[in-house]
Amino acid sequence: MHDLRHEGDPYPPETTLALGAGACRDIAVLFLALCRAQGLAGRFVSGYQARSKRPDRHLHAWPEVYLPGGGWRGFDPTWGRAIADAHVALAAAPTPAATMPIEGSFAGAARARMTYHVAIEAE
Fold this sequence. Notes:
The protein has helices at 13-19, 24-37, and strands at residues 42-49, 60-67, 71-76, 81-82, 87-93. The protein is an alpha+beta fold. It has a five-stranded antiparallel β-sheet, covered by helices on one side. A hairpin with a 4-residue loop joins strand 3 and strand 4 (81-82). It starts with 12 loop residues before the first helix and ends in a 30-residue tail after the last strand. The relative contact order is 0.18.
């Protein structure tokens, strides 16, 4: 089952299995662990899904696996399909932490608020 969780690191594979559910990043990490256990190289991808079923678009995550003789292939285990033209990759790396779009720290008394809007149009 797919959950929407806005914050936090991906769950370890054993947590996702025990819960029987997870956010897209949790399911991608589980998928990668299974592929790597079979000797296949994989990477975590962060980006957007163009035809999202949710009106409130947020970042989406999926794995890509290197298939010998076939190259890198993306899969979306959250929705049970191969990656085609409905996904826009922003970052890919061996670990989810290496794909974070914003990283840093702040010390002080200032207030901050981050907002965003994403519009994806299919041609």
